[in-house]
Structure prediction request, 404 residues.
Amino acid sequence: MVPKLVDAQTRRTELAEAVWRIVMRDGLEQASVRNVAREAGLSMGSLRHYFTTQSELLGFALRLVGERIEERIRAVDTTGDQRAVVRSMIDEMLPLDRTRRGECEVWLAFTARAVVEPTMAGLRKEIDSRLTDAFTTMIRRLADAGALRPGLDQKVEAERLYALVDGVILHALLRPGRTSNATAEATVGAHLDQIAPAASER
Amino acid sequence: MVPKLVDAQTRRTELAEAVWRIVMRDGLEQASVRNVAREAGLSMGSLRHYFTTQSELLGFALRLVGERIEERIRAVDTTGDQRAVVRSMIDEMLPLDRTRRGECEVWLAFTARAVVEPTMAGLRKEIDSRLTDAFTTMIRRLADAGALRPGLDQKVEAERLYALVDGVILHALLRPGRTSNATAEATVGAHLDQIAPAASER
DNA sequence: GCTTATCTAGCACAGTTGTGTTAGCAGCAA
DNA sequence: TTGCTGCTAACACAACTGTGCTAGATAAGC
Prediction:
């Protein structure tokens, strides 16, 4: 029986989206099996047909967030000024609109829990290594284009940019509003200006 | 009846320390009234004599963390090379040993919850403004000593340093071990070298 | 001694949690 | 029809949650 009324994968995605809505609205601690089922308009029993345990559900939801962000970053046009390219990639991670803000809130909630929950260590490690790769690529992009300030260590700069972006995200989440979005962009902009100044000032 | 066997304030501090131990060991979601009381060796009823509600207890615990960190920063010797002074101040915030790691874990757990919990908004805002002040002071310290790289905006640099340190803390928490401590210190060091280079390379 | 305030302990309440189990529904194959 | 499978629903269980309430213990003032 191959054809189905609703594909199992889309059902799982719907449930993950229900998780996101709850995490964004009330926090991770409200993402109980019952609440998620109600949010998705399903019964508890149905939910458990797709996800046997709660951590399976939550893990799936987080993984999906990562995939969506990665997809948007891959979609960035990589031609032209590499400083602008890197800037656009980072913008896809910042909580500048409702969608991205939701993704960041989910990320933060899971991150905070992953510090003490050994179950989440594997997933957390995976996300961390993907992000490290992403920032390493960005720095190499600047270096290959000859835009990176000379004398900087690429490995250190990747880690520094990664930490800065995570900090900026955190602050933008904690200080909601248009002003903090401008601050976030200004901070990232200032950093990029420092590590990859315009050719005239290099 | 002024004299007491155990001062009420020290009792409250003991309870706050019990909260920290639980948050560090099992996460904020395990810091229930019962668990905290058991950890402190008190009954539920006794705990409720010192803290009527749970959020009162948790708020007190977080505030105490902030006070201890501030105290250590105030204790830093501010004479001599201002780059080293700023470096020492930041070191007091990083999770480089058990004590500081615990403080950072408590900070992160509360931070993550504060994003969605309106009750915590006030406390969160207060902490944020104190930290903003702290980093603003550090940048001014460098500027007054003539160590800050010329052409940098002090306000932007304060925010950038603040974000970087928060990101570094986050990464150090998520990647436990001696290696990540070295990475954290190297990242902060590289940043300070960039915004306040040694006189010879300025 | 007695009184009073401070502190401690314990139980009760109604609510929520994750998970297990059992039953009923559709649609397809024989 | 009968049987099977993917899916949905509903209930039960034991454990846990925050908070309210009551009673006993302890220590200080008179």
Remarks:
- The two ends of chain A are 64 Å apart (CA to CA).
- DSSP finds nine helices and no strands in chain A.
- Confidence is low (pLDDT under 50) at residues 1-5 of chain A.
- Residues 121-144 of chain A form the longest helix (24 residues).
